[in-house]
Structure formats: C-alpha cells, structure tokens
Amino acid sequence: MLKEGISGEATTCVSTENTAVTMGSGTLPVFATPAMVALVEKAAWSSVAGELEDGQSTVGISMTLSHESATPVGLKVTVKTTLTAIDRRKLTFSWEASDEAGIIGRGTHERFIVTDEKFVAKAERKKS
C-alpha cells in the first residue's frame, strides 16, 4: 500500500561512463548531473514499484535539484528518497545524494502512476 514515508536508495560508483564529459553535460571528468537525475529516478520508482497494482508503473514528471559538490571518478554516490506526498496518482519525493565526503545534491522529484499498456499505446500513436 502506498503511504507517505516510503524510502528508497540507489548507489553507483563514478566511472568514466557517468562523467559530465562522457554524458555530454560538461567537459570535466566528474559525476554528471544527468547521471544524478537517473539515480534519483531509480531510487524513487523502485521504492514504490512493489506497492502498485499489476500492470502499473510510475513515470517521472518533474525534478528540482541542486548539484552542490563534484564527485571524482572512483567514489561511490548514494541517493536516498522519501515519499512525502500522494495526490491521487501524483507522487512527490524529497531526495539527497551523497558521496563518501558528504552531501552532493538534493531536491524534489514527482512521479505519476500510469497503466503500462495505455501509456505505451499513447506513446506509440505519435508514430502515426
């Protein structure tokens, strides 16, 4: 059952594949902001996936963030999310990202509960 307070966590090690220079979000070999966003989404969706009905998923609809500190290749980044609000099918999460030296980012993330089949069908209609 979905309820406020559900928490999630996702971790990655910074490698050349998730640096700003490789992901195209900058020129430096540090953890990329787009990689942080993906890690937030992973922590959030996976924290509530087991509470949804069969055939349902969540999709990200908004993200606010501050990327406060750079993380070099070789360090671990962990994102922790907390479900803070449920408004019908809209879920709001707060989140913090940290590396071994401390907080590197924080913000909020909203996701929307969708019916998988209907959502994919609507997206596929764009091809017509």
TrEMBL record:
Q: Which InterPro entries match?
A: FlK (IPR025540), FlK-like_dom (IPR054485), HotDog_dom_sf (IPR029069)
Catalytic positions are T33, E41, H67
Q: Which residues bind substrate?
A: G60, R111
Identify the residues that the record assigns to the Fluoroacetyl-CoA-specific thioesterase-like domain, covering every copy: 14-116
Q: Which Pfam families match?
A: FlK (PF22636)
Signal peptide extent? none
Please list the residues that bind CoA.
G60
Sorted alphabetically, which PANTHER family does this protein's record hold? BLR0278 PROTEIN, THIOESTERASE DOMAIN-CONTAINING PROTEIN
Descriptive protein name = Thioesterase
> Which species is listed as the source?
Candidatus Weimeria bifida
